[in-house]
Structure formats: structure tokens, C-alpha cells
Write a sequence for this structure.
């Protein structure tokens, strides 16, 4: 007889999460969102909405308030992205040491405190203080968000782990940039906006700090789950071993390293365009700030809506194939459309704006073709799945650094040699396309046995020939091995679960 007790309201037992199909599961559990973490998911949405408020207004606002050239502001944003990159790794590794609850709290406090100091620095017109406080603020939201994804991983039942991670990204990208841009769109005029660098932008950024604080409080006091309060790493591992596990894996498994680089490239253009496009769309092409923000909402709302679709396509047609043709190739084409279509239509025209939004939505849609990378990464290192996912989340944060660094480098070089704004910005876009070309070459090496079956028998349309599951692998046949792979031997997927 089992001695565990069940809570219908929490969706857990004293021994762990309820298995899929348990009669005491809640409706949220059956939808794939762990009921016990529901306030964490909605808290994450609020936090990322707060983070996303500034995503499309910060560059022109800082240029106006600080009186600094755009290249200098881009360098400050690049520094911020470095701290985001570091914190994206620390969010997972520190959660293993201290438990995700504490790391989420630390991340939220860091963001709110340094958001206040950053806004004070802008009000004082201090370039140096603004750079320092914005850099330190960058440690905040990744620690909160990626500590929570660890909590999700240890709470969701294995049968629904991937779905739970999908819900995480719905909330994450739903806030940054989609709802964040919507909040900015309404808050700027409400606070008396009226142009770049105005009081409306300042008021919106103060509101952003309040949203982050509210989201943290909802998650901190709403989640009633003991697993997130304690150390997760094995007792025998030292702090240094836990903190360096993901880095060691990246240097010993070259396919994990390539997966890391592909994830870096994935959304780097998105964050680069956040820096470059606001001025182009709102000022240069004459559509105004409100229409730029509306365009951003449309583009990334499209991305959110199709994330689950491309996850299903990956399971049906093959993970690598989906990433290669929809994610990499499709995003490169979509990025070119988003840049060149607005310049091919009459500036300021309504129909030209609509076509430009459609072009942007094509990019946002096909960007979701990278979703199966979340299944590929842990499958590349089945004996070190946690460390592989830590590097995956690190790459997600690192994409901000790559995107902003490309813009900063090109802008500075362009200012030295006297390039026109259009030539400079076009060069940025083509560098991102070249990075997608590098990802196209690397993806062919990320073969995993589970995906080989999908690629062999899967069809994008029509009836599948065989079930594309691990059970379809013939146990009498040896597993396929990449002859170019020099990484350590992997665990047989017939005995290892995959996300």
C-alpha cells in the first residue's frame, strides 16, 4: 500500500508530481502546466512583460536623454547583454546549489534595485552610472527565469515535461517582447509621452519595474512546492563541480558545443533588430513610434502562436529537418524580407506599413522553427541532460549578447569609415544571414538516434508509415553513430528518456 498522500489542489503527492493520467490531476496538469507552479508561470509572464517594456524604446530614449551617439548606447547595451549571458548560466547552476526559489528571489531583487538606480542615472544624465547600473541589472531577469525553468523540470511528470517547458516559453516570449511592447504602447501616451526621450518613456520604464516586482511577489508567495526550496545537486558534488558541469560538457562534447552555437544564432537577429529597427521604422521611414510598437507585437505574437505547431512538426517530420529548413533557412529569408520590404514601399504609407508587418510576421513565424532544438540538446548528452539544458539556456541569454555585439561592432566601424545609415544597417542584416548559413552547416552534425527514425519514416503531410517513437527502434540493430563525432559515448535511447 502506498504511503504517499495526494493533494487535488496542488497536483502533487508527497513523493513527487502526479503521473500523467492520475485521477487527482487538475485541469492545468492535464494541459501540461503543473498546477502547483501555476502562480510561477503567471508571475514569469508579468516579469518578462516588465522586461519587455523597454525592448523597443530604450535605444532612442538613451540617445536623447544622455546626448550620446547611437554607437555609444549600443556599446552600453552590449555590456548589459554580457551580464545577461553570465546570469543565464548562473540561473541553472546556482539553482542546483541553493534551490530555484532562492535564485528567483535574488534575480528579482537585483532587477528591481538596479532598475531604480538605472532610471535615476538617466535622470541625472550620467553616462557612466547608466552603463554600470544597466550592466548590473542584466543579472536579474535571467536568474529569475532560468531558475524557474529548473523548477519546472523537477516538478513536471516525465510524460509531460516537454509540454511544461513549452508553457514556460509561451510565458517568457509572451512577455518579452509581445506584451511588453503592448504595455509600452499604452503607457507612453498615458505618462505624457510625445517622442523619443520624453517623459512617457520614463514613466513606462518605472512601470516596468513595478511589473517585475508584482510578478516576483506572485511567484514567491503563490508557489507552495517544497522541492524548489532545497539543493538539487547530489550531496557528493562540490560547489565547483556543480557550477562548471555545463562548461565541461561543452568542451568535451563537440556536438553539444555546436548545438550551443546554433541556439546562440537562433534569436541573435531578433535582439539586433530591437536596437536597429526602432529608429528606422518610426523616424527614417516615417511610420512613428506607435506603429513600430504595434509591428513588434504582431511579429512576436505570430511567433508565440506557432511555437507549439513547429514542436509538433518536429516530432512528425524530424527535429533536425525542421530546424534546418524552417528555423534556419526560413528565418534567414524572413529576416531579409523584414529589412528590405519596408524600404521598397512608399515611406509612411498605410499599405506599405501593412506589407512591412506581414514581412516581419514571416520572420517571427519561421523563427519558431528552432523549437526542436530544445529536444535535440538533451538528446545529444543523455547522461548529462541537466548540464546540456544549462548550456541551452545560456545560449538563449547569449543570443542577446551576439545580436547587440554585431550591431555595436558594425555601427562603430561604419562611423569610422563614413558608411551611410542604410548601408550600415544592411551590413548588419547580411551578417546575421551569414550566421544562419553557419548554423545550416552545423545542424547536419547533430544526429541523435530518436531523430533518425523520424527523418526516415516521417512525413510533413499525409499518413505516417510507422509510429515515430523510441519503440520504433529495432532493439536488435546497433544505434547509428556519427563517424565524425569524437564526443563521449552516449546512453542508449531505449533506456534513457528524452524531453
Amino acid at each position: 500500500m502506498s504511503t504517499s498522500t495526494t493533494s487535488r489542489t496542488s497536483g502533487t503527492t508527497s513523493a513527487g508530481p502526479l503521473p500523467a493520467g492520475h485521477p487527482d490531476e487538475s485541469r492545468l496538469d492535464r494541459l501540461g502546466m503543473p498546477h502547483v507552479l501555476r502562480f510561477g508561470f503567471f508571475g514569469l509572464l508579468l516579469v518578462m512583460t516588465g522586461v519587455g517594456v523597454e525592448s523597443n524604446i530604450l535605444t532612442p530614449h538613451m540617445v536623447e536623454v544622455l546626448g550620446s551617439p547611437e554607437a555609444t548606447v549600443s556599446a552600453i547595451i552590449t555590456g548589459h547583454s554580457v551580464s545577461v549571458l553570465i546570469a543565464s548560466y548562473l540561473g541553472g547552476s546556482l539553482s542546483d546549489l541553493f534551490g530555484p526559489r532562492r535564485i528567483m528571489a535574488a534575480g528579482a531583487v537585483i532587477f528591481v534595485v538596479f532598475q531604480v538606480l538605472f532610471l535615476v542615472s538617466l535622470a541625472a544624465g550620467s553616462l557612466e552610472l547608466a552603463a554600470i547600473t544597466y550592466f548590473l541589472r542584466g543579472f536579474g531577469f535571467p536568474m529569475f527565469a532560468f531558475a524557474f525553468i529548473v523548477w519546472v523540470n523537477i516538478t513536471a511528470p516525465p510524460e509531460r515535461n516537454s509540454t511544461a517547458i513549452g508553457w514556460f516559453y509561451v510565458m517568457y516570449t509572451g512577455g518579452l517582447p509581445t506584451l511588453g511592447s503592448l504595455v509600452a504602447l499604452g503607457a507612453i501616451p498615458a505618462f505624457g509621452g510625445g517622442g523619443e526621450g520624453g517623459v512617457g518613456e520614463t514613466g513606462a520604464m518605472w512601470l516596468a519595474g513595478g511589473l517585475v516586482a508584482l510578478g516576483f511577489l506572485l511567484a514567491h508567495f503563490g508557489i507552495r512546492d517544497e522541492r524548489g526550496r532545497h539543493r538539487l545537486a547530489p550531496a557528493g558534488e562540490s560547489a565547483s563541480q556543480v557550477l562548471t558541469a555545463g562548461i565541461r560538457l561543452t568542451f568535451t562534447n563537440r556536438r553539444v558545443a555546436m548545438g550551443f552555437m546554433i541556439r546562440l544564432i537562433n534569436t541573435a537577429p531578433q535582439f539586433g533588430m530591437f536596437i536597429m529597427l526602432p529608429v528606422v521604422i518610426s523616424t527614417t521611414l516615417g511610420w512613428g513610434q506607435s506603429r513600430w510598437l504595434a509591428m513588434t507585437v504582431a511579429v512576436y505574437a505570430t511567433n508565440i502562436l506557432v511555437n507549439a505547431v513547429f514542436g509538433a512538426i518536429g516530432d512528425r517530420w524530424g527535429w533536425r529537418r525542421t530546424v534546418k529548413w524552417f528555423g534556419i533557412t526560413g528565418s534567414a529569408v524572413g529576416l531579409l524580407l523584414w529589412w528590405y520590404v519596408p524600404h521598397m514601399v512608399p515611406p509612411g504609407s498605410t499599405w506599405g506599413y501593412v506589407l512591412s508587418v506581414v514581412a516581419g510576421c514571416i520572420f517571427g513565424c519561421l523563427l519558431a522553427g528552432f523549437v526542436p532544438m530544445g529536444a535535440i540538446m538533451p538528446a545529444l548528452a543523455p547522461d548529462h541532460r541537466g548540464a546540456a539544458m544549462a548550456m541551452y539556456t545560456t545560449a538563449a541569454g547569449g543570443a542577446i549578447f551576439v545580436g547587440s555585439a554585431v550591431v555595436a561592432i558594425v555601427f562603430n566601424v561604419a562611423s569610422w569609415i563614413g558608411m551611410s545609415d542604410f548601408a550600415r544597417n544592411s551590413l548588419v542584416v547580411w551578417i546575421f544571414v551569414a550566421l544562419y548559413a553557419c548554423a545550416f552547416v552545423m545542424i547536419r552534425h547533430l544526429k541523435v538516434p530518436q531523430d533518425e527514425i523520424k527523418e526516415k519514416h516521417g512525413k510533413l503531410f499525409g499518413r505516417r508509415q510507422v509510429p515515430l517513437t523510441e519503440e520504433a527502434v529495432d532493439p536488435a540493430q546497433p544505434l547509428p553513430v556519427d563517424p565524425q563525432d569524437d564526443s563521449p559515448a552516449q546512453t542508449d535511447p531505449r533506456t534513457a528518456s528524452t524531453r
Remarks:
- The domain at 33-232 is CATH 1.20.1250.20 (Growth Hormone; Chain: A;).
- The beta strands are 6-7, 12-13, 16-17.
